[in-house]
Design goal:
This protein is mainly alpha-helical and 170 residues long. The protein contains seven helices and three strands; from the N terminus they run H-H-H-H-H-H-E-H-E-E.
Length: 170
């Protein structure tokens, strides 16, 4: 067989072994064999076909390995082993907070009002100072609600960016 056939065969075998490594628990043996086969294919390309073909095979290998791994990990959860190993994805009811609370808080976004005291009890002053330092939200100051805090920005003033003061705040 010609050198190009060997190079192609080594590349296909290496990528197939890499794909199998994800699905078959082999303790890394299949991964090691895949690296050896891919490396042998690249070395054969450089030795037998020259630098141009060798660089092409190396570039193709560097593109094919992540693509094969991405496909393998995308398919893995649907395999019997993947279903046993990976937990089921959480439902929307488990992840999202109370729906009525979210709707009520969304209705408040964009409205203006006075900031209330943060916390209470013995640590009230300390909590108020921490809130003022973190968000600039001292009790009694007028603020506009820019998010409800469940996944949005929270409460705070509109900050104006001065020219030349660096990147805009997040």
């Amino acid at each position: 067989m010609s050198a190009l056939v060997w190079i192609l065969l080594l590349m296909v075998v290496g990528l197939a072994l890499l794909l199998l490594e994800v699905f078959v628990p082999s303790g890394g043996v299949l991964g090691l064999l895949a690296v050896v086969a891919l490396g042998a294919g690249v070395v054969t390309a450089f030795v037998e076909q020259g630098a141009t073909v060798g660089m092409g095979v190396l570039a193709g290998t560097l593109l094919a390995v992540p693509a094969v791994l991405m496909l393998a990990f995308r398919w893995f959860p649907s395999t019997p082993l993947g279903r046993r190993v990976l937990p089921p994805p959480p439902s929307a009811d488990d992840v999202l907070p109370d729906r009525s609370l979210r709707q009520r808080l969304r209705g408040l976004v964009g409205r203006r009002g006075r900031a209330g005291a943060r916390g209470g009890g013995r640590d009230r002053r300390r909590r108020d100072r921490a809130a003022a330092g973190r968000h600039g939200c001292r009790p009694g100051r007028r603020r506009r609600l820019v998010g409800h805090g469940l996944a949005d920005g929270g409460v705070g003033p509109r900050r104006r960016r001065r020219v030349g003061s660096g990147p805009a705040p997040l």
